[in-house]
Amino acid sequence: MRRLRRAVFPAALVAALTVALLFLTIPIVAIFVDTSPGELLRSLREPESLDALRLSLTCTTVAVAIIVAVGTPAAWLLATRRFRGRSALVTLVELPLVLPPAVAGIGLLAALGPRGLLGGVVEDLGIELVLRTAGVVVALVFVAAPFYLRQAQAAFEALDRAQLDASRTLGATEARTFLRVAIPSARHGLLAGLAIAWGRALGEFGATLMFAGSFRGITQTTPLAIYEQFATDFPAALALSAVLVAVSGALLGTMKLLGGAPGGPRAAG
Amino acid sequence: MRRPAAAALACLGLALAACGGDDAGAAREQVTVSAAASLKTAFTQLGRSWHGADARFSFAGSDDLAAQIRRGARPDVFAAANTALPDALHDEGLVEAPRVFASNRLVIAVPAGEEGVRGIGDLARPGVQIAVGAPAVPIGSYARSVLSRLPTAQRAAILRNVRSEEPDVSGIVGKLTQGAVDAGLVYRSDVRASGGALRAVDLPDELQPAVAYGVAVVRDAQHPEQARAFVDALLGPQGRKALRAAGLDPPSR
Q: Which of B63, B136, B164 has the CB atom closest to A131's CB atom?
């Protein structure tokens, strides 16, 4: 009787994991089951799909480069300094994580749109964002940056303080310590953050549609092309979805490989 | 453990049918209506004044709603901004015989207070930014049929100015009210629904496409009785009143 009762909890855990796995993987499995290899090839030859994939790769690459260039030092500062209002700042930086994409799109329009808060400034600078490729990049950076920042901050915080202090004691400046010791040591966490941010950027839909619109070759990224094809050509939409899943999966896998086997200084989620 | 999974799957199904499902108001029978985004004002009004059932609406591009029905979603009523989609679904055995219940006119919509665009000719000027519907959504195909009646050079110049192809009219209206574009091709009723944010520039009659709205009861609907009652109300005086208030016209035939 007691043994039976003891077995209930582990069984419940297994059942919960099974339900979670099934629910999370069935839609992905269905995309591939319903897509014949012929459809996949046809989709890859479709000029509309190719334009969308090309645009997605360009925009996400630029967005991720910006995120890494600005996000890494910003995360370092957040991870290594203690100052008043720091936790409020961290919360602010993470806020876009929980923002619905449509809200992000509205927010970007209200801030940077022609009638937005900073619309005049943007215009005076001669920058056009709304309905332009640059606008897609802005939307992607906005929604994906917090994913990287969060992960990078955690990765830096998990570093061995003694090692960093040793670097400084040996006469290295903070900049040198940051570049030569901190970044290489934290690379697993940084790459994991990069992969998640990149994946999020690849999948971005709502903010892009609202802020940048949808125009083939200019602002119509792969998720927007999938949405447009959904109504007219479901098999093509499925095939393009399969391609996007494959690209995102490959990206995640590559970053895992580049980061090496987990076990080194790991970022706490 | 099975039950949460079933509930989660049911939620997914509901989300797909976009009928936003909680069970509030379960006392009255429900009727779920998938309707073109341009019908939002008219149908919301009708839903308030008609008491035949608890009407729940899902507004989106007609083509997306039709695609959902083709993929197995079962709203009770399908109302589209054209007759082609309900006719096609009828031919496929997915909906009952469609009926035409309203007509509309295409206009050039501009942000209120902007005077730069006074006619279709202005859309061809370099630097004018335009939003239209995507080719598959009715508002997009009507816009293209307007353009197809123009001289080739003018049509090409206008198409060069198109900055966004939106999935439904709400997208076009949003881009206009935010000043992201200078002009858009939408229905006259959309300008009416914007509450003064937009101004309509009329299109000449010879460019007007025949915009007719078709409605049909979906086969195997969960609430067929309420669905038929809703369609009757839509075609009756109550429906005409709501449609007219929203800037739509009675069917032209």
A: B164
